[in-house]
Amino acid sequence: MVFHDTTANVWFKVGSTIVTIRSVEYEGETYPYVTLEVSSASHTYYTGKQRTVAKDGSTARFNQRFGRFLGQPS
């Protein structure tokens, strides 16, 4: 079975029990075909491109106001 991560445009050939009517030719052979929006190739946890909290965002303002009460330096 071939999975296609459409976000990263990466193809994976793995065994699976998913049933699909779609097929695709991959590496000279025809396989069942499934599209994915997220896989290890595009998920932020695996790619290391996680979003960081802005220094001037709402979390920073909260910590500035109430951090000293929660034991955090202000």
From TrEMBL:
NCBIfam families: L31. Transmembrane segments: none annotated. Belongs to the bacterial ribosomal protein bL31 family. It holds the Pfam family Ribosomal_L31. This is 50S ribosomal protein L31. Keywords: Ribonucleoprotein, Ribosomal protein. GO terms for cellular component: ribosome. SUPFAM superfamilies: L28p-like. Part of the 50S ribosomal subunit. It comes from the Bacteria.
